[in-house]
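Working notes for the structural subgroup meeting. M.R. asked for a predicted model of this chain before we commit to crystallization trials. I am recording the input and output together here so anyone reviewing the notebook later can reproduce the run.

Input as submitted:
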Amino acid sequence: MQFKDKLNQLMEQFHISNSKLAKEINIDPSLVSRWRNGDRVPTMRSSHIPSIADYFLSQNGYSYQQEYLRHILEEQKAELPNISDQVALLSDWLIRDTASSTVIRPFVSSEEYAEVLLQQIQGLAKDRPAQAAMPSLDFPLPTLTTQYKKDFHLFAGNSAKRKAVIYLLTSVLRSEEKTELFLLSDEDMSWLTEDRVFQVQWHVLLRGIIEAGHKISIIHTVHRDTHDILQAINLWMPLHLLGSIKSYYNPRYQSQIVKTSWFVQKDMRALVSSSVTFEDVENLSYLYELPEVAQSFQSQFMGRLTGCKPLFEIFKKTQQFELLDRMIQNIAVVSPTTSWHLHVNSIFLPDDVYTRYSKTLPPTAQKNYIDKVRQLRTRMLNSLSIAPYTDIFPLQVLKDSITRGAYVHFDPVFFLRDEIICTRLEIKAIIENMIFVIENNEKFQLFFGNYHHSENEITININLKENTEAFLTANVQGLIPLLGFYVHEGNILSSMNHYMEEVINHIPTMRRSRPDVLKELYKMLESI
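Returned structure, recorded in token form:
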């Protein structure tokens, strides 16, 4: 069977419509239609394949549906004994024509399923015992005393909701005792994203909360459209580099009819809302300043956490050598890579810069540092001949450095919290290294991006391996104590890939063209 046959069979077996699947994996329904008709076939490396597999595996279906999947996975496991991940097994079955397609249990179509269900209902009606006499409904009305009467604050609409959020965050910031915030929301994000001034206030307050030593736990909803995910990335990821935030996501999340938002200050207060269509009539938020209510939502939050996984793989400043080892290992994973950063890529720095920095380390760590850096840079440079690598940074950074006669470099992966000052001769060596790599590696591209950030730009460095992982670091000295973190979740990676494509599309052609880039580098080299 081909991909279209298998997808059709899965969707019929689970009674999933084109629009339903499209919504769950964040694509247009017309693409699902083309897949099912055979007009389009995703590539083996497409991020949509594991998303489809993960979605069907997350379905808590009837026994015949679960048996259907179980037989596929058992056959796949027999063919691929070294693979244990169910998403990978089902993805392989979907995309490969040679993969097993035998299903032991007979396929149940939607029509057959409906007929069986109707027969069961008719059977229940036929076997129903005689109806008993209706019991008396004359119950005494309970008396409600002040023991049950509690107060809350009601906020109607997005603007009022933002005021409530500001109130809660300010209360946390002013708390003399260290506390914790529990956050989750799968509601429409317009209340957060439609007001730029509020976004600034949100960021400043959360940053203040973190720097004051308070903690934040958040369950992210990653099954959103690309625009919403990019907004969340821009708002949240720079804050994560400050530490004290624990982020989770539910890999088996299923979109709920009733969406909810919870902002809970531990043992103190809870701001909650829920909606179905997000119409004005239901766009209400309730603020309870009651310990028992806060504790109730805390308990529910902890219950939801049991089905979640950490969203990020975090590396602290004390784990520099572990991170370098991790990056050395990752180079073996061959995948097209796009790197966006505010400074020059550290692989272009001359050896003297690393040697000079190593002397600031304890004597026992100096040789180990130099060995790891040399191994990482060598492997990175060798990998440029294997897979496409696009490097993007602002041209103005080099031009300003040449004018000043010194270049200030910041990269927490290699230099922790220190800014590295490169001399005029070292700037020349950086440019010469760039020219050498471009001229000797056809798969390597150097693009000159914009120096100033637009409102929607992500203000952290990103190294994105297509459909594999993204590594994010700070691009300014203050965003410490974390060195950076890895992201592996498919929807976030897909959104980042979309973002990178948009960044590249907005770079003028003359700043992407290999001859023009080389011409600019040679011009700067002559000016030194």
